[in-house]
């Protein structure tokens, strides 16, 4: 019998490799389907929720009322996933108390005022699920194998366990894929019919699922549901929401940095580097400078910001004359702040968001034309269409319907108003 807590399979875990995971996948899946997995061992924008129940509940116990396990990439020091969690918590129907999977449990408990369980312990999460009444996979692209095949197995185990226990499963504002392996596609096709309700965050995901016989509605990314901010960035700094990407290695950064140097010098603007993912993005300016890639004039104008939460990021964007974003949710938050934006796309999801906003787009890995700097200059101090942003915000409300289907309102719960 396989002991889940001993597998070490969690999203982002780098164990003995995907080959070993693929060999073990059929055994693991059959154990879950047979119910033989042993689970031993181990308000508006993220303001704390008021509650009196115990805050750290690895096994899901200690609540009164109905409980839902919210599973996602939370507590990973990524502002985009923090923003997704803020929206998800705000949309929970009355009478439901959340238990959130998180890596940095202290951060999530303090920021959102919710109980948590360690997302990196599959055994602990399965045990927590046993004490809940429903499962919601919240936001992002969780059913994918680009992180690893083991990541996909993790979510498959949760969905399978919930359905074996007769509990509803919601896929809320999900992206689907990429699923590159044939084994992954077979597994996802088997998982999707198990969901009680699904909403997709983009038409490409909905189309992929429809090709597998699963029809579900799509809206804009759930983060669009956050409130807008008044823009006050006329003449303000240029803010970067950049990240390390496979398409930009060494000298490949040079044309972007040179175009930025010319723009900032010509408009006489400071340049603020905003790390959206604290572990991946922080120190990017220093790393590029150490490689000799940052023009001296640009280096003098540049500094890295320390931003703790989505609200602080929104405020920085609201004061920007231009936001150059690689991060999907950085681009969305910038538009919500009313800031002029331009996108650099390392992934089709970023390109799709840029098209929806109507902002300039450069696809990373494609040839950089001489007009890159001009396209950025044309957006400087010119905010996006208010009508477009409002339409995207309205489209994002669709995802609340999934929660209404999976989590019917209950008058006996202890959930406080968001």
Describe this structure in words.
- The protein has 418 residues and is an alpha/beta fold.
- It has 16 helices and twelve strands.
- The strands form two sheets. The chain has a six-stranded parallel sheet, sandwiched between helices. The chain has a six-stranded parallel sheet with strand order 9-8-7-10-11-12, with helices on both faces.
- Helix 5 (149-164) links the parallel strand 4 (134-143) and strand 5 (169-176).
- Helix 1 (18-33) runs parallel beside helix 5 (149-164).
- The longest helix is centred in the N-terminal third of the chain and has 16 residues, at 18-33.
- The radius of gyration is 22 Å and the shape is globular.
- Residues 1-43, 50-63 and 412-418 have low confidence and may be disordered.
């Amino acid at each position: 019998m396989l002991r889940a807590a001993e597998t070490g399979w969690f999203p982002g875990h780098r164990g003995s490799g995907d080959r070993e995971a693929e060999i073990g996948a059929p055994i693991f899946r059959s154990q879950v389907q047979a119910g033989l997995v042993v689970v031993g061992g181990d308000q508006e924008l993220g303001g704390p929720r008021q509650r009196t129940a115990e805050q750290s509940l690895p096994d899901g116990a200690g609540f009164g009322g109905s409980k839902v396990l919210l599973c996602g990439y939370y507590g990973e020091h990524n502002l985009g996933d923090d923003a997704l969690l803020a929206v998800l918590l705000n949309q929970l129907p009355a009478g439901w108390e959340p238990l959130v999977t998180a890596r940095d449990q202290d951060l999530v408990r303090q920021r959102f005022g919710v109980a948590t369980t360690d997302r990196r312990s599959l055994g602990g999460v399965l045990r927590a699920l046993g004490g809940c009444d429903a499962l919601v996979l919240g936001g992002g692209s969780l059913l994918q194998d680009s992180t690893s095949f083991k990541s996909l197995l993790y979510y498959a185990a949760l969905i399978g366990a919930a359905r074996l226990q007769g509990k509803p499963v919601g896929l809320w504002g999900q992206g689907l894929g990429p699923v590159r392996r044939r084994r992954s596609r077979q597994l996802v096709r088997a998982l999707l019919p198990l969901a009680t309700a699904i909403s997709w965050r983009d038409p490409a995901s909905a189309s992929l699922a429809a090709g597998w016989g699963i029809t579900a509605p799509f809206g804009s990314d759930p983060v669009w549901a956050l409130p807008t901010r008044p823009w006050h960035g006329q003449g303000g700094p240029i803010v970067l929401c950049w990240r390390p990407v496979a398409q930009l290695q060494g000298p490949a950064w040079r044309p972007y940095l040179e175009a930025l140097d010319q723009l900032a010098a010509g408009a006489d603007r400071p340049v603020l580097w905003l790390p959206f993912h604290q572990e991946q993005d922080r120190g990017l300016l220093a790393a590029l400078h150490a490689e000799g890639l940052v023009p001296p004039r640009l280096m003098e104008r540049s500094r890295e910001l320390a931003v703790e939460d989505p609200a602080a990021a929104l405020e920085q964007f609201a004061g920007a004359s231009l936001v150059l974003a690689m991060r999907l949710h950085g681009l969305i938050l910038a538009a919500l702040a009313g800031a002029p934006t331009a996108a650099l796309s390392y992934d089709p999801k970023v390109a799709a968001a840029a098209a929806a906003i109507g902002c300039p787009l450069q696809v990373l890995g494609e040839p950089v034309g001489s007009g890159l700097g001009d396209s950025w200059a044309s957006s400087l101090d010119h905010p996006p269409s208010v009508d477009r942003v409002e339409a995207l915000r309205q489209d994002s409300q669709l995802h609340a319907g999934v929660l209404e289907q999976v989590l019917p309102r209950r008058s006996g719960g202890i959930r406080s108003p968001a």
